[in-house]
Automatic annotation (TrEMBL):
GO terms for molecular function: oxidoreductase activity. SUPFAM superfamilies: FAD/NAD(P)-binding domain (SSF51905). Keywords: Flavoprotein, Oxidoreductase. The keyword Disulfide bond does not apply. The keyword GTP-binding does not apply. It comes from Rhodococcus spelaei. Its cofactor is FAD. Belongs to the DadA oxidoreductase family. Residues 2-371 form the FAD dependent oxidoreductase domain. This is TIGR03364 family FAD-dependent oxidoreductase.
Length: 375
């Protein structure tokens, strides 16, 4: 088949890769010269730890697919480095202990480590904490360079064409297939179209599918100069236990009752996630803002809070902050759904709303779409 993918983010690119590997011809349209949305404004984390039971299988499958992709495209920078969630209070340790007692703890690659064991896994963590929840199955990719690398590999197949700076304005279908009109007046014909609009829920997405069952979420992040030493795992703090459904339970309820977040963290719905880039700098975040219209500027207080938390865990001063940014992703309104996947018209599908899980689940979601459509 000839398949048109609208959208050049991780979901669109994962769908393109899946289709090409299954023998189809793919054209992919991206309105920017490079993806500029949540795909490149994230941690690049492939995050298995803390996933709800219903999404765990997809997360594990996606991690396998990322590893397979890395064997074909080493430039994506996939590292199966794992993560450490660092626990600083007895209440946070109790949540980890309850998590370790669950039957799927081994499936998630969990181990609860004391400070000496944490240091053996990640010698850069010389700060203050009581324990660390180690997840060996977490990983990371280089989000800002992965997509161009994947596209180069797809182009080498001879069955893939990427059209950058090309905004799809209209998608129609009839008995002869799908027809896409772009903002240059050109028309692209295909047998099937998959539209992956990311967080752009108006325009073409609304024309095709109306009001999607999605909301948008804004977050703030930052990046440091090179750390000067290896951070061998990704790290998270105890606040992250509040945001990942896999940690839900009586111990988490007790934590929330006994241990309020710091005022800045609570006001900005914060958790710490931190991963080291291949160039040595740290990507650090994040916040969660749900009420639109979103502010166009970034607040300094969350950055100061995150800096303090990371420095406490590392036991050292951070290198200078060299970049700060905000990003927006779309999230399904039903927390029990991985993604919105709808067919507004014949041979046209809209796939959107993985909700901060795009890098983690992208390859598995594309595989699911391909299976569902019989590609």
């Amino acid at each position: 088949m000839r398949i048109a993918i609208v959208g050049g983010g991780i979901l669109g690119t994962a769908h393109a890769d899946e289709a090409v590997r299954r023998g189809h011809e793919v054209i992919q349209l991206e309105r920017e010269h490079e993806a500029r949305g949540a795909t490149v404004r994230n941690f690049g984390l492939v995050w298995v730890s803390g996933r709800a039971e219903f999404e765990l299988e997809a997360a594990l499958r996606s991690r396998q697919l990322w590893q397979d992709l890395a064997s074909r495209v080493p430039e994506i920078g996939f590292r199966p480095a794992g993560s450490l969630t660092l626990l600083r209070t007895p209440e946070e340790v109790a949540v980890a202990e309850q998590t370790m007692a669950r039957p799927d703890a081994d499936v998630r690659g969990f181990a609860l480590l004391d400070p000496e064991q944490v240091l053996a896994v990640n010698p850069a963590l010389r700060g203050k904490y009581l324990a660390g929840l180690h997840c060996t199955l977490d990983g990371a990719v280089e989000s800002r360079i992965a997509l161009p690398a994947i596209r180069r590999q797809l182009a080498a197949s001879g069955r893939y064409t990427f059209h950058s700076g090309t905004e799809a304005r209209e998608v129609t279908s009839n008995s002869t297939g799908v027809h896409i009109r772009d903002d240059h007046g050109r028309t692209f014909d295909a047998d099937l179209a998959i539209v992956c609009p990311g967080a752009t829920l108006g325009g073409l997405a609304r024309d095709l599918a109306g009001e999607l069952p999605l909301r948008r979420v804004r977050l703030q992040m930052m990046q440091t100069a090179p750390l000067g030493e290896d951070l061998t795992t990704a790290i998270a703090d105890g606040d992250s236990l509040r945001y990942y459904p896999g940690f839900a339970g009586t111990a988490l309820d007790a934590l929330k009752a006994a241990q309020p977040q710091a005022p800045t963290a609570e006001a900005h719905r914060m958790q710490l996630l931190c991963v080291q880039r291949l160039h040595g700098g740290l990507t650090i975040g994040d916040t969660h803002e749900y009420d639109e219209p979103f502010d166009f500027d970034v607040d300094e207080a969350p950055y100061q809070h995150l800096t303090g938390v990371v420095e406490e865990l590392l036991g050292r001063t951070l290198p200078p902050i060299v970049k700060r940014w905000a990003g927006v992703y779309s999230q399904h309104l039903d927390p029990g759904e991985l993604v919105h996947r709808g067919q507004p018209t014949d041979n046209v599908w809209v796939v959107a709303g993985p909700g901060g899980r795009g890098m983690t689940l992208g390859p598995a979601l594309a595989e699911q779409t391909a299976d569902q459509l019989g590609l």
